[in-house]
Amino acid sequence: MHIRLENFHMVASALAILSVALLARLANGLSESSSSSSSDHTTTVGRFPFLMPKVIPYKKELYLCTPVKVDDTKSYYIVGFEPNATMATAHHMLLYGCGAPGSQSAVWNCGEMAKSDDVKEETGSPCGAGSSSQIIYAWARDAPKLELQDGVGFKVGLDSPIKYIVLQVHYANIDKFKDGTTSDDSGIFLHYTLKQMNKRAGVLLLGTGGSIPPHQVEYMETVCNISENKTIHPFAYRTHTHSLGRVVSGYQIKIDQEGQNHWTRLGKRDPLTPQMFYPVESTAPIRKGDRLAARCTMESNRSTVTNIGATNNDEMCNFYLMYYVENDEPLQMKYCFSSGPPYFYWKNKDTELNNIPDYDASHL
Asked: Which of 48, 267, 287, 333 could be disulfide-bonded to 237 (CB atoms 3.0-4.6 Å)?
């Protein structure tokens, strides 16, 4: 079935059929999938194809979402992500874990600024208003597949707040779809198991709002406090900007008894390289009282101001930190955002930051 997006309000009733079909496939996936063995040779891993249902994007910079309802009678642990996309088609893809989807349609327009001239077109956020929402995976720039380390998994279903998984695809360029017959099934093959994982994975997204002046280097920075009584173990990070990003860096900050900050780099990259999850530079545990910080060094040669926004002509500043907690639940805090420039900087007096690694944060 090809879904022409100018008419996707007509497929709202397909959600029930889609959800039932995908639910059945997810519940039976272990018996249908080939299995692989972990180091202890006892873990059977299923492979679930979570793909766009043959959509035909009809305008540039379109964000589309499609949901799957997770079988809530069992606990599943997602242990790997295998992209089915190229950067020639998809600018980026995100997987959201939701308590409820943002729409009852099989596919909907889910950009951050989602709106439509067609009042019949379904729009909405990836996750439903008031429901739990978290990012569990992100992909861009032809990043390869990601397999989590042994014993680590994202828990979904049963007593997890994640009852739906929503796939978001950003279509920056739609030239290949203009003939009206070429469709897209970009998405992600989820690797999962029923075996209980005691190391529960989570993702904390650090980012900013703000704007970048013309013909200028600008720092987009954020910092947040770890206030929950948990110990998190970082193991991977990912950076994301659009075309103006030069360096993205993230840090763990510990404060000694004299109030001095000790910055430990978690990761630093050129964000225009493949935007995959890379191993962190430090796996030191992060505990209550620590702080996390990120900086995107942006360089604009444009003659106009560039704002944070959803399109390729806008910018983004994101540092994703993937971690696990042992025999515990992940952080309730899923996002750490600042207002960004010209209002927020690490150097602001009210941040109470010192020993700021200015050079290290902005040079590869």
From this structure: 267
Helix (H, G, I), strand (E, B) or coil at 167: strand
Residue 62's contacts (CB-CB under 8 Å, 6 or more residues apart) are 5, 109, 111, 170, 171, 174
* 191 labeled part of a ligand binding site: no
pLDDT interval class at 122 (50, 70, 90): confident
pLDDT value at 311 more than 60: yes
Q: Name the DSSP letter for residue 149.
A: P
Give 126's DSSP letter. Answer: S
Q: What pLDDT, on a 0 to 100 scale, did the predictor assign at position 336?
A: 96
User: How high is the pLDDT of residue 61?
Assistant: 87
Angstrom distances, CA of residue 170 to CA of 60, 102, 135, 271, 362:
9, 16, 15, 17, 28
Please tell me whether 91 is known to bind a ligand. Answer: yes
Domains of the chain (ranges; CATH) run 44-197 (2.60.120.310), 201-363 (2.60.120.230)
Confirm whether residue 52 is marked as ligand binding: no
Residues carrying an active site annotation: 91-92, 168, 170, 240, 242, 316
Tell me: is residue 233 an annotated ligand-binding position. no
pLDDT of residue 157: 95
- Which is nearest to 242 in space by CA: 220, 263, 266? 220
Distance CA 167, CA 135 (A): 10
DSSP string, 25-41: HHHHHHHHS-----TTS
C-alpha–C-alpha distance, residues 51 and 68, integer Å: 10
Q: Which two tokens stand for residue 306?
A: 């560039």
Spatial separation of the C-alpha atoms in residues 148 and 203, rounded to whole Å? 13
Give me the mean pLDDT over the 70-78 stretch. Answer: 95
Query: For the segment 48-62, what is each residue's pLDDT rounded down to a tens digit?
Result: 999 999 999 988 889
What does pTM read for this prediction? Answer: 0.86
Secondary structure (3-state) at 193: strand
